[in-house]
Task: structure prediction
Amino acid sequence: MILSRYIFKEILKSQLSLFAILMAVFLCQSFVQVLTKATKGDIPASLVTQILLLSVPSMSVFMLPLTVYLAVLITHARMGGDSETIVMRSFGISPLKSLGISFFIAVLTAGVALFNSLYLLPLSAQKQATLLDDARENASYFALDSGKFIKLGGSSKVVAYVDELTGGNGKTPKGGKASAASGKADAGDELRRMRNIYLFFQGNDRYPPSYAMARTGNIAKDDDGILWFILEQGRSYSGPDRHGKYAMADFDEYRFWISETGGDSRADRPSAKTSGELWAASDRSSMAELQWRISVALAIPVLTLIVVPLGGVKPRQGKFSKLLPALLIFGSYFLFCGALKNLVDRGSFPVYPGLYAVPVLYLLFFALPLNLVETRWYRRRLLKRREVR
Result:
């Protein structure tokens, strides 16, 4: 029992350490990516922290199988390299016993991974989709800040600069409608008001470069769900055109299309649906997504059965001599799952067995042969073959 607890503690300690380190690394990487998008204006800066926290379940989908896989490999390789395995064998800790301890940790981790992939992952995806949809449909969340240049409409050719910006919820109240002529809302609608606005357009094949400035303006959404960047009481300059001429005009209102918000919601995607909705659905995309979530959890016990014999190195082999083949097996599992998911989604592969074929194949062609080598039955057959020769 002391040796069993020792193996259990070593694997668990390595797993938790690896999970904390890798999660911190990937969170920092994700933070940089989200912050870059916020800087470019793709997402509001106020949602950076929430989006980052909601990305933890999606990271855990791969972190949980990877950390327990590496923890089992490192622990068994270290014990084998330090001759601890030989000593344990002399005290009655058989390979099957070591496998059982590692498999017990794998089952516990698989339960956590299954809960994460079936419940936490769709929940976080739904919340993240709701935040982004609200930001897309709410003018107050539009990624605009005073004293900064920002691209409009996802185009690098249109840049705006606002000297002063005031808040507002940007929503049309119940019963209120935005005027199609002016883009302004009815009484009670709060818009994002702007002062001292400058708009730059680099031009294209159809329109010459232009520059517009106004003392006031706002951001509003019309009845069709389109966000407009509106300048009021200003002046515009354009040119040179194809004939080398310039133009100047005073305007009461200058409107620029920002983005169309009346589209499909991100919450309708299969990745954002709950597992119950995927189970009740009959389309191939939903069934492939559900099988993917389950296959990720099934990977943990199957890959653990593979990595335990791979970690059983001899003292002279080196502790990490089998690290590369172990990582190749791990990576190939998820690559095959991803490929089969796309094939099932496109209808090129049957829904059943679908993604469940991957853990079954790895169990038959990797786990069972590698573990049979350590059995007495295999050694007896090998000894009989040598005697016959």
User: Anything to note?
Assistant: Strands lie at 149-152, 155-165, 192-201, 210-221, 226-238, 247-260.
